């Protein structure tokens, strides 16, 4: 295995995060803080508890998940799209690295950035809302699993995209609505029955539900199903990445 | 000795059906400078891209440093450094970081002293902490070369390395390429500057419409396909070409004061001697004579337009 190669890609991507700390870290942290202020403190103070959890605390897992998904996709898609755009991809393609190593480098860095960001947001949330983590192991596990899965998804988008607009389409037009409708700000039990059924087709419901369970021990769906669905999505992304490298889709002619 | 690059029956058909390479067979020896010449779209970059692993081959077999580029791609690619045609660089990285990144990517442990040597050799040492975006085009080209040399490759591909660089930098690069060759590095060069190939190459390959039409040692190519021109400035004006000379490949200039004789460089002795004897017999006197050898460029143009 070309560990130096993996490390080179990983360090290169992490260095990009340092260079763009305003965009990579501060911007999502400030956005999430605004959510805490508006929905947690201002509106939340007039909302009743949900499952005996204060509204401000209840929305923490969903808001962390929102940033996590968006940043994982954004980090990984930009990570692989930029070399394609600037033409420097030739170096990766001509290097003695396998596709597994390329993915480890790019996706590993994107997921690391997301996990760091998630932890920063969690620490920042403490300034606004008091909360405990009931299952820390599972909280970290969900954090990592989701970051890796959506970084892989972002990697696929980065390879598929042939323009900056396409990089934005999936996160803005698909992922954001799914997160907002996936129980970030409410429990799906609060929806009419028909919308509860429809919500179960939203994969983000399972992520937020499982993540919330790790914090408070309450969930919309069983935690086992949440883990299972996340693993299914992870497997689908891995399969897509395998296909991309096997066929050279948009990488090698 | 085993060639450093071995290409057998290589063909490439792109997804849209365009056949870029047709049954290419080529061997490049260790430590030589091989210039691959051809007009735009002839297939030079496709051939290089396949050998380097950027483009998939459709048919055939390619070995680099004795390793199959598909089955043993790690070993094959480790032995290759590539300087692509385009100035593709990471604008926001520093020179040092960019070159160190390349070394790591190619599976080599960090070796700051080697990076330092490469940067010094390429006159980039003073710029090592500069972001690449702040460098001039010529300096960026040097960075591309430094990146390609960062992992100490055995084979170096230079795809139009001096395109758009000034004369001084071009001379520096030639010097560097010769030095690399002295250290045993095999260099494959594509260039539009035929004088570059003429100046540096040991062997020349010409590719046209995806086919290799000629591979020859440069000196032999020059003597085999080269033409010489003998110009005789006459003492007195000639109104027309004397009948005794009409069978020769000779022309009379418009002003009638010059005879221009073109001949194969391999047949120069017999032809020139016969011409001068004939002129003597005819009483045609000349005050000066000059010979000129055709350049590689003229040979190249002749080949690709055949």
From TrEMBL, chain A:
It holds the Pfam family ABC2_membrane. It is found in: Cell inner membrane; Membrane. It comes from Marinobacter albus. It is a multi-pass membrane protein. This is Transport permease protein. InterPro entries: ABC-2_transport_permease (IPR052522), ABC2_TM (IPR013525), ABC2_TM_bact-type (IPR047817), ABC_2_transport (IPR000412). Residues 19-248 form the ABC transmembrane type-2 domain. The chain crosses the membrane at residues 20-43, 55-82, 102-125, 137-161, 167-188, 200-218, 224-245. Belongs to the ABC-2 integral membrane protein family. Keywords: Cell membrane, Membrane, Transmembrane, Transmembrane helix, Transport. It comes from the Bacteria.
């Amino acid at each position: 295995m070309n560990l130096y190669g993996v490390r080179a890609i990983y360090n290169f991507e992490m260095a990009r995060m340092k260079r763009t700390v305003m965009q990579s870290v501060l911007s999502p942290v400030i956005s999430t803080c605004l959510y805490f202020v508006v929905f947690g403190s201002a509106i939340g103070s007039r909302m009743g508890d949900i499952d005996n959890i204060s509204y401000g605390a209840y929305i923490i897992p969903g808001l962390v998940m929102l940033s996590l998904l968006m940043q994982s996709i954004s980090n990984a898609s930009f990570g692989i799209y930029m070399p394609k755009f600037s033409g420097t991809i030739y170096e990766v393609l001509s290097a003695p690295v396998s596709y597994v190593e390329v993915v480890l480098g790019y996706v590993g860095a994107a997921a690391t950035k997301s996990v760091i960001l998630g932890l920063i947001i969690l620490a920042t949330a403490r300034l606004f809302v008091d909360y405990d983590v009931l299952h820390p192991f599972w909280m970290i596990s969900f954090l990592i699993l989701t970051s890796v899965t959506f970084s892989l998804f972002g990697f696929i988008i980065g390879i598929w995209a042939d323009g900056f607009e396409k990089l934005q389409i999936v996160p803005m037009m698909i992922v954001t609505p799914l997160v907002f409708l996936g129980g970030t700000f409410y429990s799906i039990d609060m929806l009419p029955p028909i919308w509860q059924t429809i919500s179960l087709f939203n994969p983000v419901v399972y992520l937020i539900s499982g993540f919330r369970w790790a914090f408070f021990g309450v969930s919309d769906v069983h935690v086992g199903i949440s883990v299972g669905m996340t693993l299914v999505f992870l497997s689908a992304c891995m399969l897509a990445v395998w296909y991309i490298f096997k066929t050279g889709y948009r990488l090698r002619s | 000795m085993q060639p450093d690059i071995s290409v057998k029956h290589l063909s490439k058909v792109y997804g849209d059906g365009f056949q870029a390479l047709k049954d290419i067979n080529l061997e490049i020896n260790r430590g030589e400078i091989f210039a691959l010449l051809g007009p735009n779209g002839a297939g030079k970059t496709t051939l290089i891209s396949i050998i380097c692993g950027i483009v998939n081959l459709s048919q055939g077999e390619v070995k680099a440093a004795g390793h199959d580029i598909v089955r043993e791609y790690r070993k094959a690619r480790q032995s290759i450094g590539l300087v692509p045609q385009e100035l593709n660089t990471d604008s926001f990285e520093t020179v040092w970081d960019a070159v160190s990144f390349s070394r790591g990517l190619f599976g080599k442990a960090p070796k700051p002293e080697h990076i330092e040597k490469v940067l010094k050799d390429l006159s980039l040492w003073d710029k090592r902490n500069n972001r690449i975006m702040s460098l001039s085009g010529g300096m960026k080209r040097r960075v591309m070369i430094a990146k390609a040399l960062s992992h100490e490759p055995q084979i170096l591909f230079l795809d139009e390395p001096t395109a758009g660089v000034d004369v001084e930098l071009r001379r520096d690069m030639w010097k560097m390429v010769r030095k690399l060759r002295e250290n045993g590095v095999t260099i494959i060069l594509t260039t539009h500057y035929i004088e570059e190939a003429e100046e540096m190459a040991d062997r020349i390959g010409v590719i046209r419409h995806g086919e290799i039409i000629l591979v020859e040692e440069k000196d032999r190519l020059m003597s085999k396909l080269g033409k010489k021109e003998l110009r005789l400035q006459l003492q007195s004006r000639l109104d027309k070409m004397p009948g005794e000379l009409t069978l020769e490949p000779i022309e009379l200039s418009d002003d009638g004061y010059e005879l221009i004789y073109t001949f194969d460089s391999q047949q120069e002795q017999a032809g020139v001697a016969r011409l001068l004897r004939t002129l003597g017999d005819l009483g045609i006197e000349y005050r000066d004579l000059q010979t000129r050898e055709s350049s590689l460029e003229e040979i190249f143009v002749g080949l690709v337009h055949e």
